[in-house]
Write a structure and sequence with these properties.
By secondary structure, this protein is an alpha/beta fold. The N and C termini lie far apart (153 Å). Among the domains are: 153 residues, Heat Shock Protein 90, CATH 3.30.565.10; 146 residues, Histidine kinase-like ATPase, C-terminal domain (Heat Shock Protein 90, 2-Layer Sandwich); 123 residues, Response regulator (Rossmann fold, 3-Layer(aba) Sandwich), CATH 3.40.50.2300. Helix 9 packs antiparallel against helix 10. The relative contact order is 0.06. Helix content is 46%, strand content 18%. The longest helix is centred in the N-terminal third of the chain and has 85 residues.
Length: 606
């Protein structure tokens, strides 16, 4: 055997071109002892450069496997070197080509990081092992490594067998230790899995319980929501259904107060007239409150009648300005209407829109002590009406609550202004019915701006308007000729008394009835010259009475003046109202409207 332990740095076949390779040992394999020596040299080299014992055994075993294949091929030379930056290489060059599918080569390939067989004759094999991360070529003391290899004495076969047995025993011990560690880790993993499964089961149970609670909560919320909806519907239905009972006595008081104040009646003392004026004013306030309640109920339920038509915005705002000017009584507050010359068309319900704007302007004037209240309109689609003021403003906490029924913001002006807290809720609902929206932008001390945005062409389908009002007749017109018989049909005795008083000089005889069936009986017994008919009657309603009269040839031509509220269109069919000579609102009933109805009745008889 020939062996050297040094040599110059050089480029070595089997490595990439240009890589620097430093030889640390070389030898020739001519017999089995040389294979053992090669194995020993590789182990010593691995130990010196920092490979652990297992890598040393793997690398030595790979060299011995390839060395035996080379010995079978006639011998070989072995060179051990270090290739930059951190690779240990063993180059084995056989005298003759290695056998195809050599078992030693296959075994070696599984023990090292790379195995390169030279092309062509397949006589050269390069085994490579990457050094540990912390080990670089420049950290290896090559001279000391060469001295350690030179001092390595050849071993006998018995010594090599003993070394291999020791390696095997160590490997088995390490394997056993690894297996014990694996068993321990498996046990920990199983314990962890059991804990995870227990936790998963607990979470699943809790989640299922939570889901049941959520479902129950949703069911309860749905039930409460339906209960609230039913309660709201009941409230709206109640307000709608008791409109007659709420307004009839108020209207009767108004009518009687007007009779007391009528200049043609018995003279009153100064104190009596003052008291009658107070009765009239208080009754008017009460009627306004009742009407606000009922209008809000109708707006909530969607029963508020709308009549959509082409509206002249400039003319409408001029009307609103004229009606609002008398309310601007504070000298320090200016009421300004800012309307562009050409604002364009708008299709909406002019009456309802005017009510919204009047409501907003009235509120602005109430809560503005100095500065201005400005009404402006901005073109486009939607068309935006803005009512802004420099008043006390509304805080964020109250910005939405002002649209709740009966809610009023407590301020230092609260005792000076009057209101019910129904105007803004009504205005917002009416704006919605008109296809738009009502919004508020306000800050305490900085004033408020209410904006009403309405589409140019709303989606709601216009509904027909109810029967027309009585003819406009001035109070200076001569009274009509008295009629022989007038029939009053109303279930409110106070209102019948007020109406009878208005007919004292207008009818030779006045007959009264409190329900529809009795009224039909009286009409058939003695045909009246005019019937003043309330629509909301107990039992047979006024609309049903009109229908029966229309179907009866003996009663078809009897003149009927319907005396009802402003919402009469919701109480009877349009066809029945069309048959009436007049539709009179109880809240504004006067001698003038009675005379106009009588004139139309006399004209119909002719």
């Amino acid at each position: 055997m020939a062996r050297t332990t040094g040599g110059p740095d050089r480029g070595q076949a089997g490595g990439p071109a240009g890589e620097e390779l430093t030889d640390v040992a070389s030898l020739h394999i001519a017999d089995e002892a040389d294979v053992f020596t090669a194995r020993q040299i590789v182990r010593v080299t691995g130990a010196e450069i920092g490979l652990d014992s297992q890598d040393q055994v793997r690398l030595a075993t790979a060299v011995s496997e390839v060395g035996r294949e080379a010995l079978a091929a006639g011998g070989a030379s072995v060179t051990v070197g270090l290739r930059a930056p951190a690779t240990l290489t063993i180059t084995i060059v056989a005298r003759n080509p290695f056998p195809a599918e050599a078992a030693g080569l296959l075994a070696a390939a599984r023990l090292v990081d790379t195995t390169v067989a030279a092309q062509g004759s397949a006589r050269t094999v390069v085994l490579a092992k990457f050094l540990p991360t912390a080990t670089r070529l420049e950290t290896v003391h090559v001279a000391r490594l060469r001295r350690a290899l030179a001092a390595t004495a050849p071993v006998s076969r018995l010594d090599e067998l003993r070394i291999q047995n020791d390696d095997l025993v160590n490997a088995l011990a390490e394997l056993k230790e690894n297996q014990s560690e694996l068993v321990r880790l498996n046990a920990e993993l199983e314990e962890t899995n059991r804990g995870v499964m227990a936790l998963y089961g607990q979470l699943s149970t809790e989640l299922e319980e939570t889901n049941r609670g959520v479902v129950a909560l949703y069911a309860e919320l749905d039930e409460r929501g339906m209960a609230l909806e039913r309660a709201n519907e009941a409230k709206t239905r109640f307000l709608r259904n008791v409109s007659h009972e709420l307004r009839a006595p108020v209207t009767s008081v108004l009518g009687l107060a007007r009779l007391l104040l009528d200049p043609t009646g018995d003279p009153l003392s100064t104190e009596q007239r003052r008291q009658a004026d107070l009765i009239l004013a208080s009754s008017g306030d009460l009627l306004t409150l009742v009407n606000d309640l009922l209008d809000l109920a109708k707006a909530e339920s969607g029963h508020l009648d709308t009549a959509f038509e082409e509206v002249d915005v400039s003319a409408m705002l001029a009307t609103v300005e004229g009606s609002m000017r008398p309310l601007a009584t504070r000298a320090a507050v200016r009421l300004v209407f800012d309307v562009p010359a050409d604002i364009g068309p708008l299709r909406t319900d002019e009456s309802l829109l005017c009510r919204i704007l009047r409501n907003l302007v009235t509120n602005a004037l109430k809560f503005t002590e100095q500065g201005e209240v400005r009404v402006s309109v901005r073109g486009g689609n939607p068309l935006v009406f803005a009512v802004s003021d420099t008043g006390i403003g509304i805080g964020p906490a109250d910005a939405e609550r002002v649209f709740d029924e009966f809610y009023q913001v407590r301020t230092h002006l609260h005792a000076q202004v009057r209101g019910t807290g129904l105007g803004l809720p009504y205005a917002r609902r009416v704006a919605t019915l008109l296809g738009g929206r009502l919004d508020l932008d306000s800050a305490v001390g900085a004033g408020s701006t209410f904006t009403v945005a309405l589409p140019r062409e709303p989606s709601p389908v216009p509904e027909p308007v109810a029967a027309g009002e009585a003819d406009d007749t001035t109070a200076t017109s001569p009274p009509p000729a008295p009629v022989p018989l007038a029939l009053i049909v109303d279930d409110d005795p106070a209102f019948r008394t007020a109406l009878r008083t208005l007919l004292v000089d207008r009818a030779a005889r006045v007959v009264e009835s409190g329900d529809g069936d009795d009224a039909l009986r009286l009409m058939r017994a003695e045909r009246p010259d005019i019937v003043f008919l309330d629509l909301l009657l107990p039992g047979r309603s006024g609309g049903e009475v009109l229908s029966v009269m229309n179907d009866d040839s003996t009663l078809r031509d009897v003149p009927v003046a319907v005396v009802t509220w402003s919402d009469h269109s919701a109480s009877a069919s349009h066809g029945a109202l069309d048959a009436a000579v007049a539709v009179l609102a109880k809240s504004t009933l006067s001698q003038v409207t009675i005379d106009a109805a009588l004139r139309r009745a006399v004209g119909q008889r002719r």
